[in-house]
Amino acid sequence: MTVEQTSIPTAWRRPLLAFLFLGLLSLYLSYTFNSCLVSSLIRRTTPMIPHQSPYISKGVRVVPLFTNVSETKYRSVRQRGARRLPTALIIGIKKAGTRALLEFLRIHPDIRAAGCEVHFFDRYYDQGLEWYRKKMPPTVLGQITMEKTPAYWVSKDAPARIAKMNPGTKLLVVVRDPVTRALSDYAQASSKRPGMPSFEQLAFLNGTNGGIVDTRWGPVRLGVYARYLLRWLKYFSLSQMLFISGERLVVDPAAEVGRVQDFLGLKRLVTEKHFYFNTTKGFPCLFKSETKSSPHCLGKTKGRSHPRVPVSALIRLREFYRPFNQHFYQLTGINFGWP
Ligand code: A3P
Fold first, then answer.
1. Which residue ranges make up each domain of the chain?
2. Residue 28 pLDDT > 50, yes or no?
3. Rounded distance from Cα 283 to ligand 1 centre (Å)
4. 145 C-alpha to ligand 1 centroid (Å)
5. Which residue in 6, 103, 185, 213 has the most C-beta neighbors within 10 A?
6. By alpha-carbon position, which residue is closest to atom 19 of ligand 1?
7. Are the C-beta atoms of residues 137 and 83 closer than 8 Å to each other?
């Protein structure tokens, strides 16, 4: 039957079509508006208590994260859930392997982490906890929210502030031989500032290799780990902290990540089968990660070549750090075996 054959008078057809069109449009607009309104209202009233949000929908569909892996690993398809304050933090140490650790942990379906360094406890504390919470990815029940900002390790204020947010926060600290860490720190700084004085000029007073170590220089000072740890121990017990060896993270990433999963109370789902050693990069890389499904390594800024430094300078630095390393081993109860 054509339009001409219907019993609707011709004069009515146009207004009727326009009415129908407007009706459908207003239905669509009111649905869109209300759903935004509802979700924003829910977001505003979501309490900041981890794992107690009424927000977790029973209707969240789940599918396996790794289709070629047999364990039951699930994640939300629609990423619905609530943004919560982190319950675990990678607080440092800069240039020790913090990015590698975070990328490896993010494979775990029960860990969701902010992608970039948020710097809340050192730089943006004035913004308030609500601001911080909104920087976190949504999580569903049972998932752990994480964040990594290595600058927290050296921040005077961060320990007290984190303890105030949640005294039960779990702290992950990646550590590395302070001498190689200082070289790495210098390599990063000099890549951003061409024409920088040499490593030796900065690391020693008067720039002499065998001379007095200049502890005012950040990359050197940061390697005195015991000094910083004492600050954290005023607010957190050792049982809340896990120290990850940056060296072992390169040699045996699965073992180190395994320890972290145990510490966080998670099933060991990130295992050897997620890693391969990339000989070109010279580091372990991932077969797939949270964001990429193909094999890939960390970016160019991770695994830079270090400056050539006279052996005498390295020996002098090692001598300098030895007593501080011993103190750090005593405090943590772990001998990291740095030379
Ligand atoms: P280098 O660039 O000096 O080699 P951070 O992420 O804390 O800045 O640490 C950077 C360091 O992570 C790198 O320092 C590198 O040695 C180390 N690292 C550990 N595992 C790595 C991996 N799988 N890929 C690249 N770098 C890794």
1. 62-186+219-308
2. no
3. 8
4. 23
5. 185
6. 97
7. yes
- Residue 247 CA to ligand 1 center (angstroms) comes to 10
Tell me the two tokens of residue 147: 């964040």
Amino acid identity, position 87: T
pLDDT single digits (tens) 99-158: 999 999 999 999 999 989 999 999 999 999 999 999 999 999 999 999 999 999 999 999
Angle at CA of residue 311, ends 216 and 303, nearest 5°: 75
- Of 246, 244, 231, 226, residue with least CA distance to 321: 226
Which CATH number is 62-186+219-308 given? Answer: 3.40.50.300
The first and second tokens of residue 205, run together, are 């007073």
Q: How many CB atoms lie within 10 A of CB 97?
A: 27
Strands (E), the chain: 62-64, 74-76, 82-83, 88-92, 111-113, 138-139, 144-148, 170-175, 241-245, 275-278, 283-286
Residue 66, classed as helix, strand or coil, is coil
Query: Closest by alpha carbon to 284, among 269, 292, 268, 295?
Result: 295
Cis-peptide into 93, omega within 30 deg:
yes
Structure tokens of 76?
């939300």
Pocket residue to mutate for ligand 1, from 302, 304, 305, 308, most atoms within 8 A of Cβ: 302
If we measure between CA atoms, which residue out of 50, 60, 95, 55 comes closest to residue 222? 95
Amino acid identity of 32? T
Give the span between the Cα atoms of 40 and 322, in whole angstroms: 55
**Which ligand 1 atom is at minimum distance from the Cα of 103?**
23
The label of the residue with tokens 């790495």 reads 184
Question: Closest Cα to residue 122, out of 154, 94, 146, 99?
Answer: 154
